Amino acid sequence: MTEDAHTFHHGFASVLLATATTDGHPTASYAPYLSDEEPLLFYIFISELAEHTGNLLQNPKASLLFIDNEAESGSLFARKRITYSCKVEAISRDQLIFDTLLDRFEARHGSTMALLRTFQDFHLFRLTPTKASYVRGFGDAFEFDLNPLDGRIPTE
Prior knowledge:
By secondary structure, this protein is of the alpha+beta class. It is 21% helix and 42% strand. Strands 1-2-3-6-5-4 form a 6-stranded antiparallel beta barrel. Strand 1 (14-20) and strand 2 (26-36) form a beta hairpin.
């Protein structure tokens, strides 16, 4: 079961993203992403033109949702999905990891990244999951606190 939870996001190139303003106004969107597995980390590269960028800079929390395509789901009420509650950190352009991560974005998401990385209004964020909620179907749901040392969903 937990291996399935660990690998579910691998089938996606983008993630649904929920953020909030400092006064609690919610915003939902999506972004292409990268991930590292141990510890489990997600990265997004997004423009200041998007409301969620300002939200993350002011209120560094987010929720990520990976969910099965509804056309391929047996039931719209029990789509397989995993939601992560995350703390968020901006990675500045002068940090060594910045260019390495953008190279990985370009390798995964194509040549558009070569142009986007030159735009100064784009910000790179690291999202570190602290909790996960995994639903495989009706009556088949699990909540996890992630290990802060390795980001892994507990095995038992």
